[in-house]
Specification:
This protein is mainly α and about 100 residues long. The protein contains 5 helices and no strands. It is elongated, with a radius of gyration of 25 Å. The termini are far apart. The model has no long low-confidence stretch (mean pLDDT about 80).
């Protein structure tokens, strides 16, 4: 996954919107493969140059374990027991398990 600005491409607005929609659905490589090799190379360079400075997947993924640990501690500490949201409801014996 990457973040870039399709508005930097030298395409007219309808074509630019179609390119962006196709790229979101099928991936940027598939969208770029719709163009001749020379245009593909140029467009790829323009999209790379348009990435925002905050887009750094390595940094984002490096924080992922800490995010999980803080939001879902039971994944990391199996001794934790979550309090049930509802009291147990006795529905009687399971008909398939009753011995006739």
């Amino acid at each position: 996954m990457t973040v870039s600005n399709a508005a930097t491409l030298p395409l007219q607005p309808p074509a630019r919107a179609m390119f962006a929609g196709y790229a979101r659905t099928n991936g940027i490589s598939a969208a770029l493969n719709s163009f001749p090799a020379e245009a593909r190379k140029k467009f790829k360079a323009q999209l790379s140059a348009s990435r925002p400075s905050w887009w750094n997947p390595a940094t984002i993924w490096a924080t992922w374990p800490d995010v999980l640990r803080s939001t879902l501690p039971i994944l990391f500490e199996p001794k934790l027991v979550l309090k049930p949201l509802f009291k147990s409801i006795d529905l009687g014996p399971d008909p398939e398990l009753v011995d006739d």
